[in-house]
Amino acid sequence: MANFSPSSEDTSISFSRIAIAMVAIALAICLSAFGFYRFQTSDPYISQVLAQKGEVTQGQEIFNLNCAACHGAGGVGLVGPSLAKVSHRKSQVGLINQVISGKTPPMPKFQPSPEIMADLLSYLDNL
Asked: Which of 40, 51, 107, 119, by CA, is between 20 and 30 Å from 23?
C-alpha cells in the first residue's frame, strides 16, 4: 500500500505559501486603499478645502443658514439624517463629496467656496 499522507516538509511549504499569499493580498488591499485616497484628494477643489483650517463659528453660521432646515439645529436630524458624530462615520473627503454631489435626494447640490467648505467641515467635526 502506498502512503499518501503529506510529509512535514510538504506541510511547512504549504503553510509558507499560504502565509506569503495572505501577506501579498493584505499589501494589495492597503495599496489600493491608499491609491483610492490619493485619487480622491487629487481633485483641486478637495485639495484646496483640505489645505485650509476652517473656523468652527463660521461653519456653524453656514450650517444654520444652509443645513439646519433639514438636519435640525445642531445636526440632530429632521428630514435629513442626524449629523451627530458624522466625522466618525465619514471621512472629510466623503463629507465634501456628499455636500457638493447632490447624489442623495432630497439633499440639493451645493457649491461652496473652499473656504466655506473648510468652515463647514470644522463645524461638522464638532457635532
From this structure: 40
pTM: 0.68
3-state secondary structure of 110: coil
Q: Which three cell numbers stand for residue 43?
A: 481633485
The Cα–Cα gap between 98 and 113 comes to: 15
Count CA atoms closer than 13 A to 54's CA, side-chain side. 26
Query: Domain limits at 58?
Result: 44-125
Q: pLDDT band at residue 118, thresholds of 50, 70 and 90?
A: very high
Range scoring the smallest mean pLDDT among 9-18, 33-42, 91-100 = 33-42
CB-based contact 79:107 (threshold 8 Å)? no
Task: With respect to residue 57, please indicate whether it lies within any of the assigned structural domains.
Answer: yes
Alpha helices in 3-113 (DSSP H): 8-41, 44-50, 56-66, 68-71, 86-89, 92-101
51 exposure class (CB count in 10 Å sphere: 0-12, 13-18, 19+): exposed
120 is written with which cell numbers? 463647514
Residues 30 and 56 in one domain: no
